[in-house]
Amino acid sequence: xxxxxxxxxxxxxxxxxxxxxxxxxxxxxxxxxxxxxxxxxxxxxxxxxxxxxxxxxxxxxxxxxxxxxxxxxxxxxxxxxxxxxxxxxxxxxxxxxxxxxxxxxxxxxxxxxxxxxxxxxxxxxxxxxxxxxxxxxxxxxxxxxxxxxxxxxxxxxxxxxxxxxxxxxxxxxxxxxxxxxxxxxxxxxxxxxxxxxxxxxxxxxxxxxxxxxxxxxxxxxxxxxxxxxxxxxxxxxxxxxxxxxxxxxxxxxxxxx
Length: 257
Ligand code: ZN
Ligand code: MN
Fold this sequence. Notes:
- By secondary structure, the chain is α/β, with parallel strands linked by helices.
- It has helices at 12-20, 43-59, 91-107, 123-139, 158-164, 179-188, 233-255, and strands at 25-29, 62-63, 112-117, 146-151.
- Residues 35, 43-44, 176, 181 line the site of zinc ion.
- Zinc ion binds at residues 35, 43-44, 176, 181.
């Protein structure tokens, strides 16, 4: 039996022992958001959770329960809020959930956190939650908490991107439900992917601004922003390898492991 890295599967004395030994707490932060007709609603939860699980194993850390809801889906990076099944939080709600979780764990002795974001729109509400938590802890006399915050998709070698996108990488925003996320899901949860439903419409193009509310024709009907055709578990394997090895190296460097 492999020892679990999921903190929710530990008893409280086991959890305390790990934390007293200096374990890092990894928090996967996702969303419940449409990912086209071929992927489930929980892609943005599954992917950062899998990365956290592997990096926690490499670093002796623990993975906190994933945040399954995220900040609102934007048309240019997630297809928008109008898709059935997309359920999002106000920015303030997400920030305060995270603030409360980090603060309580800080009170109980956690001194090192790694926040791993899996949903493009979460970035600044997550920064806010982290900042509020650290400020509260400092005011309570707990001043030695340190945290890393990152988007897992930034940890990829240029050579890997060149291999996957010989015609050039379209950029992270447009990758919503596209080649990268579909390939990672084919690697991690092929049972949840229906490749026969991958849209055939190609890459979306947007002006460099948002309009509220989105005008007719502005939203992508399928919810997929780039092109998922050609996705494979092998590509998912290359990406996951980069994500896990590069995030592990960064965590070890920053926390002196
Ligand atoms: Zn996604
Ligand atoms: Mn997303």
